[in-house]
Amino acid sequence: MQFADLQLNKSILKAIAKKNYETPTPIQIETIPLVLAKKDIIASAQTGTGKTAAFALPIIEQLIDKQDAPKKGKKIRALVISPTRELAIQLEESFRAYSSYTNLRTTVVYGGVSIEPQNDILQKGVDILIATPGRLLDLHKQEMLNLSSVETLVVDEADLLLDMGFIEDIFKINKLCPDPKQTLMFSATMPDKVVFLAKSILNNPEKVSVSPASSASKTVNQLLYYVPKPKKIELCLHLLRNTIKGEIIIFRRTKFGVDKLEKTLLSNGYKVDTIHGDKTQNAREEALNRFKNKEVSILIATDLASRGLDIKNLDAVINFDIPNVAETYVHRIGRTGRAGEVGNAYSFCSADEKSYIITIQKTMDKVITVEENHPYPLDPKAKPEVHKKAGSKHQKGRKSEASKKKKKRWY
Ligand code: AMP
Known about the structure:
There is one protein chain. This protein is of the alpha/beta class. The protein is about 40% helix and about 15% strand. The protein is built from 15 helices and 14 strands. Strands 3-4-2-5-6-1-7 form a seven-stranded parallel beta sheet, with helices on both faces. The chain has a seven-stranded parallel beta sheet with strand order 10-11-9-12-13-8-14, with helices on both faces. Helix 3 packs across helix 4. It is globular. The relative contact order is 0.12. The site of adenosine monophosphate (AMP) has 14 residues, from helix 3.
């Protein structure tokens, strides 16, 4: 199958060629014809599979007919909802690249920055709007945008949107758009709440699934290090000196943990930057750009950064803390080994995190290779047996996670 077989406009094919995509990925082959046939879609797809182009290309194709509308007269005809600012910015970059040979106008709006410049751009007229839910509703409340011409609504990373507590906002946004319209929902995992949302807002959807939910890319080599918690920093320094080279993202659960590790790595001479929820939007973007431009080789992040970030040639991910939600592990390691490249994921597991590892392995249906050969081993008796009954613990972990998030966002 070639892109040319997918009934896409020449200007889109030119943009794809410029991106050096040779053939469509499986999710693109499945999804593009369905979107062009105006179907609603619920798609289960990991990041890194090319899912952005799977919805962006046919949306652009559908909008292209009217691309000569005068700029002032442009109305928002495609709306993409994204959970985080970082992901929203990346979506905008993709839409802009894929529509670079058309007159379609794309913009992105998100919170944490002044609303006025976003309003100015909206007033000039855009065809495609990428938005985080809160800022979109703010703009609507202040009558700065009108969603009555939306023909296609995309809910991207639906599971994360729901984890972040945006369900009511999605219902509100759905109501602000016309009925009928085309709705496309993408989610890396399919928990019940995502299925509920899909049933509520999709109309007789086609189901697309290209890889089992919660499975990690086969091109990521995963290694597990059992280590006492206080020794994690020494293990990290040891591996950075001897084993892990190149561009690296280190994930930590808390902002505090990110800042602490940053200080230690800086004092050991590493070039490091950080992304977490306490940083301003500008500071986060600058950190990401410095990392992408290779001015720093290590980025330390909370899970805010674990979804969707597309960084070329990322060599390794380090899970300094093991996430207590299995899907989060899958997303973290999915930052490496993207689009068929080989990547490495190193996970540091202390005694109190053993149950998370059991759940992660069950979720992925894969045993992670344990690296025994390192200077800071955990007492062997403290290791868990792989694939022991873990479902109940997993559920408990997920519940406490959700309740923590309700109280305070700590990412
Ligand atoms: P996504 O899953 O949308 O985040 O895409 C992951 C990466 O795959 C991005 O770097 C895309 O530019 C790239 N990509 C998307 N479609 C293709 C394709 N057909 N061939 C090669 N790379 C692609």
